[in-house]
Write a structure and sequence with these properties.
CATH class of the domain at 92-148: Mainly Beta
Distance between the termini: 62 Å
Order of helices and strands: HHEEEEEEE
Number of helices: 2
Radius of gyration: 44 Å
Shape: flat
Structural class: alpha+beta
CATH architecture of the domain at 92-148: Roll
Strand order of the largest sheet: 4-5-6-7
Strand content: 15-25%
Largest sheet: 4 strands, antiparallel
Number of strands: 7
């Protein structure tokens, strides 16, 4: 590149830079932000949804559209029958957890599972004792009710295996390496061997 052409380019860039700085200084002093404009929101029309009345003939409630059977839910089961002393007939001891004073009885009654510790009440009955066989409840008049643990039936034909289990195989077995090939690196690091 020739010297006169280079000087002209430097002069041109200097003039251009001076113009940009002048416009920036003059423009910053005279600029002000525009006034805010409120958005034009169209009026919305409120349309209430139809309400299903209990006395109306509602096909949607009688035959639900997205249910396979298109039949409504069956009414809830009747409440459990209580015997004359207030203890539910369907009460069942389903488990016990804990040790010592922290022993808890799990009792299924009226379709729910209740956790009771010694001294707590189920209706008008107080849990008096917990042991390996079951639990004992005392009523208000000195009545005693015992719930026994029901165990699942066991298969009488099942026996322990007669042969001991086979010994465990090592997780990584070394494979035969072709001649002049080093063994693979162990997991967790690289081993550098010198060639002899």
């Amino acid at each position: 590149m020739s010297a006169p052409l280079f000087r002209m380019l430097v002069l041109f860039n200097g003039v251009l830079l001076a113009l940009v700085l002048l416009l920036w200084v003059l423009g910053a002093a005279g600029w002000s932000p525009p006034a805010p404009v409120a958005p034009a929101i169209p009026e919305t029309i409120y349309t209430p949804r139809p309400v299903f009345e209990a006395g109306q003939d509602n096909a949607m409630l009688e035959r639900p559209l997205f249910w396979a059977s298109r039949r409504p839910v069956a009414p809830d089961a009747p409440p459990p029958v209580m015997v004359k002393d207030g203890f539910a007939e369907d009460a069942q001891l389903i488990g016990m957890a804990g040790t010592g004073e922290n022993l808890v009885a799990l009792i299924r009654t009226e379709g729910t599972v209740v956790r009771l510790m010694r001294g707590e009440k189920l209706g008008s009955w107080r849990l008096d004792a917990l042991d390996a066989e079951g639990v004992v409840f005392l009523g208000g008049k000195g009545d005693v009710r015992r719930l026994r643990m029901e165990h699942a039936p066991q298969d009488k034909g099942a026996t322990a295996p007669s042969a001991p289990p086979a010994p465990r195989q090592p997780a990584l077995e070394r494979k035969a390496q072709p001649n002049n090939m080093p063994p693979p690196a162990p997991p967790g690091g690289l081993v550098i061997q010198s060639a002899n």
